[in-house]
Amino acid sequence: MLLRKEFTFDSAHNLVSYHGKCERLHGHTYRMAIDISGQPDEDGMIVDFVEVKGIVNAEIISKFDHAYLNDIIPQPSAENIARHVFERLDPILRGPNYELHSVQVWETQDSSVIFGRDDL
């Protein structure tokens, strides 16, 4: 079973190793989905949405929202943002019946990347 919690954050970045308009400073309203795989426990839940929200807000959103992402991730492409988020949350979003499955990051409404366990 997959559990999904979605978030948004506003950040600025520029892609220093890219040659095109994205190498200039610009911003996005990012959308991010956290997918957790597992089986419901005796309470009928994989993990409480409130717990997931608290962890993601503390570990990711509080650092990314209204930030210059280049200060956090050297080349903050959508791919590298998704990898960074997955690697940061993977040791935390684990329980006896669940683990982090994937992170999806939308840079625009119709452009996203998914980083999953198989990509480690």
What class would the helix/strand composition place it in?
Answer: alpha+beta
Whole-number average pLDDT?
98
Tell me the total number of β-strands: 6
CATH superfamily: 6-pyruvoyl tetrahydropterin synthase/QueD
Oligomer: single chain
Query: What CATH architecture would you give?
Result: 2-Layer Sandwich
CATH topology: Tetrahydropterin Synthase, Chain A
Write down the overall geometry. elongated
β content, as a range? 35-45%
Largest sheet: 6 strands, mixed
Distance between the termini: 21 Å
* Helix proportion range: 10-25%
Round the Cα radius of gyration to an integer and report it.
15 Å
Number of helices: 2
Quick recap of the structure?
The chain is α+β, with helices and mostly antiparallel strands.
What does this entry look like structurally?
The protein has 120 residues and is of the alpha+beta class. Helix content is 23%, strand content 38%. The protein has two helices and six strands, in the order ββαβαβββ. It has helices at 49-64, 78-89, and strands at 2-13, 26-38, 67-68, 94-95, 98-108, 111-116. Strands 1, 2, 3, 4, 5 and 6 form a six-stranded mixed sheet that branches. Strand 5 and strand 6 form a beta hairpin. The radius of gyration is 15 Å and the shape is elongated.
SSE blueprint:
Layout: E1 2-13, E2 26-38, H1 49-64, E3 67-68, H2 78-89, E4 94-95, E5 98-108, E6 111-116
Parallel strand pairs: 1-3
Antiparallel strand pairs: 1-2, 2-5, 4-5, 5-6
List keywords for this structure.
single chain; 120 residues; alpha+beta; 6-stranded mixed sheet; 2 helices; elongated
